[in-house]
Amino acid sequence: MKQSQGLANVPDEVRTGLRSAGLILSSSVSVSVLTEGLSNQNYLIRDGDSSWVLRVNSTASSQICDRNAEVSNWKIAAEQGLAPGLYFVSDDKKYYLSDYIEQEEGQSWGSLITAKSAHPLIDDSVPWPGAESALLDMLTQITRLECPENSLSVSRQWSIYQASLYDIWSRIGNKPSQGQVCQEHKAWREKHLQLLSLRSDISQWLDELDACALGEQYSHRDLNPHNLLFQNGRLMCIDFEYACSSHPLFDLAGVLSSHALSTEQRHFLIDSYLDNHPKLTLDAKAALPAAINIYWVFAACWSLLMAADAETETDIEIAEVFGLQREPGSHHGSKYLDCFSQFYSLILP
Known about the structure:
Blueprint lengths: L3 E2 L6 H9 L9 E7 L4 E7 L2 E7 L2 H4 L4 H13 L6 E4 L5 E5 L31 H13 L10 H20 L5 H18 L2 H14 L4 E3 L8 E4 L2 E4 L6 E3 L3 H9 L4 H12 L9 H27 L7 H4 L11 H13 L4
Antiparallel strand pairs: 1-2, 2-3, 3-4, 4-6, 5-6, 7-10, 8-9
Helix pairs in contact: 4-9, 5-10, 6-10, 6-12, 7-10, 8-10, 10-12
């Protein structure tokens, strides 16, 4: 947690919006940096015994997600107790205020973050006993949520990513550059070509996924440990930027790709989730490696999109809105290119 500031540092737009929602902050309110993510920023607002999270969305992330769908899908999950309550959304979707879910000391689900390919090594270590049961309960509840209005198949998502990346290729190819910018453009093109070299494999994986799905379901699409909160023995989700109605195997793939679980925990989670799943065929287990590969393909696409937008990012340094310091250059394009390299290394043709 970083240093805090008072009421004067809360943007006027936020204070006005909260007043209209019936929430008036007192003069004793404090604001502190909660997390510094790769895209958006989160701040903890404390006022007496009440605490909220204020998220400030970046322009770069807003360009590659549908904020209206995000808010709608967040509310669907919150109504069923799978997400913090959402109190306020600014008209321009730049600011969100939600419940702050206090984490028990030593019980941060984010500690399980890892990066695993479709064929991980045997692992007997159990960093969080019972994690598989908590994950299964959450995934099962997600399958029962109302399907979002924004439907997006994995094949359609790949097509959208391809079109966006080709547009960026053309844009930077026609733009004069020099120095560091020129080097970043060159690195971006090289990494894009790396991704394109997998096109035939990607098509095969998408075919496998299409063949095992009997329908769509609510899909969060990014259930890594940093997007999960553990309280009172159960999990809640945050960050619904990419939530949609999509493939019923994708969220399981995201969990397996990003969680430090023992081999036994993984097998329990896979078998229990797939057992009699109403929207998956019996071939779904065999298609799971394809789903994990596609998870990392989409992560690689995301990192290239964010890297391209980083150099032209027009956001005010978000922490400065609150008079708080943050590390310089934390949104530089090179950081996203480094992410690409990690994600790409996890794709197994």
